[in-house]
Amino acid sequence: MSQDKQLLSAVDYVLSEAKRQGAEADVIVNRSNSFSLKANQGQLDEYKVSSSQVLGVRVVKDARIATSYSESLEESSLDLMLTNALQSARFSKQDEHQTISCVDSKITTDIAEIAQEDTTSADEKIALSLALEKGVLDLPHASSAPYNGYADGESQLILANTQGTLCQHFERSFSCYAYTLFEKDGKQSMAGKVSVGRRFDELDPSYCIEKGYNLARDLLDGAPVATGEYSAIFDVGALSSLFGAFGSAFSGVSAMKGITPLANKVGQSVASELITLTDAAYMSNGMAIAAFDSEGFATQDNILIANGQLSTYSTTATLLATLVQYQRLARRAVQNPA
């Protein structure tokens, strides 16, 4: 049986068993493979190939929910996983909002740019990894490149529920990074840059080396700035971090629970009228492209803030947080096998 058929068979089994035991359920399967390299003192210091696979279930029974996961697709393991979830649900608080509302959604992310074939040889990837460190060390006052590396990986996602939904997603990505430890006149500073892409030839190691080095050099003589009002120009990373600090404030779940300052403020002014904030479903060359959300609904553009007024909340469900938890547990299992 092929791997895809094995995954789909496991999903069908869990959903059928959940229904047989009088529960609704949704299932997330995440399978990933990764390859990474690091250099140290001109030699390859790390050559790592890893893979993970995890199936997670959320059961809903009598308005009570619980989750569980399994890394094994054996029926005995899936039975134990489901039993654990159903038993845990008995002791959870009833929540009328916890329902499975996505019905008969059949969506597959069909965007060629996110799943391009990788034909690059291991030798080419090793050469890039070694070049990152050497490129940093060839620059004046760069004493080391303590953090550097190359990585690529692929990820498969299957989302299904007892309401007939079955959505699938596959993507592949590449990245490289280099950090410079800059030393001069008894002072040190460190900075680095990352390059990401959907193909190996989209990576820009020169950007990582030069921009990281220049930033480390410029930070060497940095000093605190006096409190005051200043005009500011944000680079993309800094602006993303700034808005990221407020991400949970736009959560529909947080608004429902009343734990965001933006609760009950739809239609009201919450920012400068110069600000319009859009949650875009697709951006060319984006690294977060998917055709469906964490419940199985088709993704779409949502304007969160329009000319300073709150228009809507983010519809990202708690299931996404569950997936992140599953992924972390799977990675931990790979890194620290029993």
Architecture overview:
The chain has 338 residues and is α+β, with helices and mostly antiparallel strands. The chain folds into 2 domains: 3-223 and 319-335, PmbA/TldD fold; 236-316, no CATH class. It has helices at 3-20, 75-89, 122-137, 205-219, 236-244, 252-257, 318-335, and strands spanning 24-40, 43-61, 64-70, 142-144, 148-161, 166-184, 187-197, 277-279, 302-306, 309-310. Strands 1, 2, 3, 4, 5, 6 and 7 form a 7-stranded antiparallel beta sheet that branches. Strands 8-9-10 form a 3-stranded antiparallel beta sheet, with no helix packed on it. A hairpin with a 2-residue loop joins strand 2 and strand 3 (64-70). Helix 1 (3-20) packs parallel to helix 2 (75-89) and helix 3 (122-137) packs parallel to helix 4 (205-219). Mean pLDDT is 90; it is low at 317-338.
Topology, pairings included?
Blueprint (H helix, E strand, L loop, with lengths): L2 H18 L3 E17 L2 E19 L2 E7 L4 H15 L32 H16 L4 E3 L3 E14 L4 E19 L2 E11 L7 H15 L16 H9 L7 H6 L19 E3 L22 E5 L2 E2 L7 H18 L3
Antiparallel strand pairs: 1-2, 1-5, 2-3, 4-6, 5-6, 6-7, 8-9, 9-10
